[in-house]
Write a structure and sequence with these properties.
Two copies of one chain form a homodimer.
Chain A: E1 2-7, H1 15-28, E2 35-38, H2 42-46, E3 50-52, H3 53-56, H4 60-67, H5 89-100, E4 103-110, H6 112-127, E5 133-138, H7 154-171, E6 179-185, H8 192-195, E7 210-212, H9 220-233, E8 236-242, H10 247-253, E9 259-261, E10 267-269, H11 272-284, E11 287-292, H12 296-299, H13 306-324, E12 330-338, E13 343-350, H14 375-381, E14 393-394, E15 397-398
Parallel strand pairs in A: 1-2, 1-4, 4-5, 5-12, 6-8, 6-11, 7-8
Antiparallel strand pairs in A: 2-3, 9-10, 12-13, 14-15
Chain lengths: 412, 412
């Protein structure tokens, strides 16, 4: 029996650890022969673009490197399966790929879009009487999947955010002038990653003084009041703001649009950081700067959380075992048993409970002032960022898994 | 006898290590009694705003924390001394501060602007027959000081750049579409930090495929030709570009301006990353994104170079010893003896040889194609990024030196 693995959605520091988890569990299983990687998510299964993973992951060092390499070594996609009652062709192509390569189990590592694929594909196989199993393994730095306590990839991103925000706090407090620093953090629909900056309180850091989440009741008069109050207390005010904030409504109430015009005369949308920067500078006339943590917050493996990486590997392995045990249409998830000592178990749920759904940051963890989060949030976040991974380095630089050998082993 | 220390210019990861070097050398010296820190660079000497450093740096842990804290714990300034023949008042205030606190030696840690202060102040003291000594200790992530082989703070910034660029390379290669990623790196006048991304070649990384420095002959037709050629070879083309590139002339030759208009109708200047992003997208119609490494490249102490931090501490100590030996108006610097094994010695030179001057990236290390650097550059950069500092952490986060105790000990 053969199995296949694919990765989907945006990069994280942990998605290759989950791939390794599936690979190792498959390798150890006496039931599994070939282990295929599908290139660029489900697109690889549709286009019969597979790689024989045993040919490219050969040594212990290969495995270590895979674990410490950010982003997806198998490539990713944003492809959404069509409704199978309207368009069966794609499904037939996927089924043909399973059949051709004698694949019995397929593990899909991804976010809520990928769980939609797990739901549709497993339903199609069931309906058409095909014995193939499809299991979802979660990942996303946004931490916005329902059911699971948290998602692999989030802990490393949170560790990056907290560590980097603390460094920016130091950077922001050198001159003898008043300033406001706005740090824009990823999370298109949920504020989890922005909120995670609160863990700095656990080590006695007062900043970020203000944390604005999409789930909070945030508006311009309130923001300006907040900043006025913090400026009275601190020379360098630090604000963490989620990119998921409804920036259009903020801009509208400040009497501006979010649209800028670039050097070519083309309109572009300013993010919430830039818009807040302008609104604050206009009101207070002080130095204001906005900083985007950009893709670094999702790919900085040199600063990953050991807890996150180990969990990502474990949940990948559990996903493969679930498939081998005959389950299909399920997503693996973490259930937290306790914060201190930190303890979780891996369980499974129907993937449709997560597909296309988002878990918001809990309203009850937002302070009444709507500009910060409670200590419950700190207790939730802290265990997820613990531990450092000892990286294999050369010349003072972390080594990454080398994909160049892929060419020889794809398009079997 | 008492001594004073101040820090100036932009933040780095190593400037507090140099402060520690001065402090420790002073602490060990039987000649030195009080060790003062001047708050916000020379401004603290002008305004008599000093701190008794022995009161705030008390334990070995304090020293360890100081070493691992980015940015300047004493604060910084951009203050430039007036010409002392035109305006003596400021100089008299500084001299009064020396006299009041019985300060004999002053060590100023900073970049080329700060060396201007060292030159002027030491000349004033000499001219007025005051026995005070002023010594400069270099620092800047830009690495653009003359005479010295390199500057403290640069090695850590270069390590951040190389490590992060490699992670962005991974992040940029996940989807099955063509893309160009432009990474804008600091260096207002010199390309050292941007060039340092070349060290990835030492570990077999082909990208960044193109490296554009202010010292190279860069123009739009050449850039577009370069990118066309690289696109033929790579699905994800990675470009490292220095913020110091003459972006106006690039924009002009592309028939655009660098000015944008923000949401408030205010004009703003686009950086070279954004301008190149638009120029490339217009030409090729592919996915293009630009990423700024922003302040993270100068304050990410969690990723500092051990070599850099140790050297910064050593050169601070050497600066203090030079002052105690009676030298004044000098800047300490590194002379490199050999690349492999890496060996440097610390010497001193007249500070006027560095004041207000910039050391450019060598033209002979730029490839004839003007879009990359030679292997000599790799050999130069590599030793500077070696080694990791074992950080004191709590709750999974690096601890920083706590400045809150300062309040009780400033304004003596």
């Amino acid at each position: 029996m053969n199995i296949a693995i694919a990765q989907s959605g945006g990069p994280t520091c942990a998605i290759n650890a989950s791939l390794l988890g599936v690979f190792r569990a498959a390798y150890k299983s006496s039931e599994v022969d070939a282990i295929f990687g599908s290139i660029n998510g489900i697109e690889g299964m549709i286009g019969d673009n597979l790689i024989n993973l045993k040919s490219v992951i050969r040594t212990n060092e290969d495995m270590e490197l895979l674990r410490q390499t950010p982003s997806t070594v198998l490539g990713s996609c944003r492809y959404k399966l069509p409704d199978y009652e309207k368009d069966t062709e794609v499904y037939e192509k996927i089924a043909a790929c399973f059949e051709k390569h004698m694949i019995d189990s397929f593990v899909y590592i991804g976010g809520n879009d990928s769980m939609d694929t797990v739901v549709k594909l497993s339903a199609y196989f069931e309906k058409t009487g095909k014995p193939y199993r499809v299991i979802g393994v979660p990942k996303t730095i946004d931490n916005d999947l329902p059911i699971t306590d948290h998602t692999p990839g989030f802990g490393s991103a949170a560790k990056y955010v907290a560590t980097t925000v603390q460094e920016i706090i130091r950077d922001s407090s050198v001159y003898s002038i008043d300033s406001v620093t706005v740090i824009e953090i990823m999370g298109r629909h949920a504020g989890w990653l922005t909120a995670s900056a609160c863990v700095l309180r656990a080590i006695g850091q007062e900043a970020p003084h203000l944390i604005y989440l999409p789930e909070a009741d945030v508006n311009v008069p309130r923001i300006l009041d907040d900043i006025r109050r913090e400026r009275a207390k601190h020379q360098a005010v630090i604000v963490a703001v989620s990119e998921g904030i409804d920036v259009s409504s903020l801009a509208e109430s400040a009497g501006v649009t979010t649209a800028g015009v670039d050097a070519f005369g083309h309109k572009f949308q300013n993010g919430v950081g830039k818009v807040l920067e302008r609104i604050i500078a206009k009101e207070f006339g002080c130095k204001v700067r906005s900083i985007e943590l950009n893709v670094m917050q999702r790919c900085s493996s040199h600063l990953c959380s050991k807890t996150d990486i180990e969990e990502a590997e474990a949940i990948g392995a559990a996903g493969l075992r679930a498939a081998l045990s005959g389950h299909t249409g399920k997503m693996m998830y973490f259930r937290r048993i306790s914060d201190t000592p930190y303890e979780t178990v891996i369980e499974m749920t129907d993937a449709f409970q997560c597909a296309n759904l988002e878990k918001k940051f809990p309203k009850e963890w937002i302070t009444p002032s709507q500009n910060n989060v409670t200590d419950e949030a700190i207790r939730y976040f802290l265990p997820l960022i613990q531990g450092d991974v000892k990286l294999i380095t050369r010349c003072g630089l972390p080594m990454h898994f080398d994909r160049s050998s892929f060419e020889a082993f794809t398009n079997l």
